[in-house]
Amino acid sequence: MRPSFRLLPIAIVACPLLVVATSINAVQSANAADWSQFLGPNRNGISEETGLIDAWPTGGPKEVWRVKGGVGMSGVAVRGNVACTLIQTGGQQRVLALNAKTGATTWSTPVATAYENGQGDGPRGTPAFVGGSVFVFTGDGTLARLKVSDGTIEWSHNVLKRHGGRAADYGMACSPLVVSDLVVVQAGATAGTVVACDIKTGEPRWTSGRGEAAGYSSPAMFTVSGQSQIVAFKGASVSGIDLKSGDTLWKYPYRTDYDCNTASPILVGNNVLVSAGENHGSTMLKIGSKSDNFKVDKVWSSIGGGSAMRNEWQTAIHLGDYLYAFDNVGSAGPVTHLVCIEAATGKPVWRKTRFGKGNMIAADGKLFATTMKGELVVIKATPVGYEELGRSTVIDTTRTAPALANGHLYLRDGAEIVCLNVQKK
After folding, report:
1. Which CATH number fits domain 7-421: 3.10.20.90, 3.30.420.40, 2.130.10.10, 3.30.450.20?
2. Residue pLDDT, tens place only, 221-232
3. CA-to-CA distance for 183 and 21, rounded, in angstroms?
4. Where are the domains of the chain?
5. How far apart are CA 401 and CA 74, in angstroms?
6. Which of 29, 153, 415, 422 is least surrounded, with the fewest CB atoms within 10 Å of its CB?
7. What is the pTM of this model?
């Protein structure tokens, strides 16, 4: 049995959701402080909120509420007054909606039977709000759309069963990408590694690739060299996919032990960054235009035991000219550093050795990190060096990054969900 720390949620994992029902901008502009999907408003782990704590309050940030949740590694998504996540309890995987201000349960809807895995039970993917609906993907591969108002299931089907696949070794960890009139997930199925379904009906619209393992990353939507495309980091490669047809525009091999490509790809300028653990490393890719047949070139690569950055399940944060990230040493080993590297070159800037496994987001010039010990750590985001602003134990073991909405952080473990006020007084 592989050691339990290999698994990624994904929610953690996890992977910018350019969301959208009719228009992504319409959804986002409704409340710029929402955290409506995996990795936040732009699916990159960064919030535009300001006015957040830069001095540690006595006893740590103020706890607003704490409620019972359930088993799982799904992240929390927040839109308006609704906080949503996936939990496992009573033999079922359920979508749980809470009042974001009070923690009171608004509704709880079962969408699949319990999912069990030697590396951790329960759902992994983070919900995505779009319009009046929320989209979810469970640990066994059930994709569903529910009404935000009351939790009614609008449609649901098991993507793996429909397309001839099987659950990934550590469970389906992809968080759904909703773009245009499609919801896109990794399936790793015989009929399609990546699957796009109609958001209104749930029926398949296209599949992309065949026979390749899904990996554990969540797809993203980028415009690269003038071409809008879905970028999917699969079990053994990363590729650009045409949104309308599902055709592969480009593909770059990226084989990692155990198909553990987990962190989401991110856009850095006009380039695509991919990073993986299992002692693999990171590569920055330049993607050509349509006139160049989407030629793929390496801008820089840092691979192997001496790599500057190996994201085990955590997606790197790109701020200014730098990347802030977790670097896991060895084959999913216990040693993980927190690092800052130059985005343009991949060269190390600073390293906080043995910071520990965790996950993080960024806002207001700070990094808000959770550790597997259940700590919340706030760090100044600066290339000058590691500067910790404060640290408190607030939950139990977690691999999920916080969600930030309206000055409040939402965190969860396998039993509870917590809301903390991180606004300046």
Report:
1. 2.130.10.10
2. 999 999 999 999
3. 10
4. 7-421
5. 10
6. 29
7. 0.92
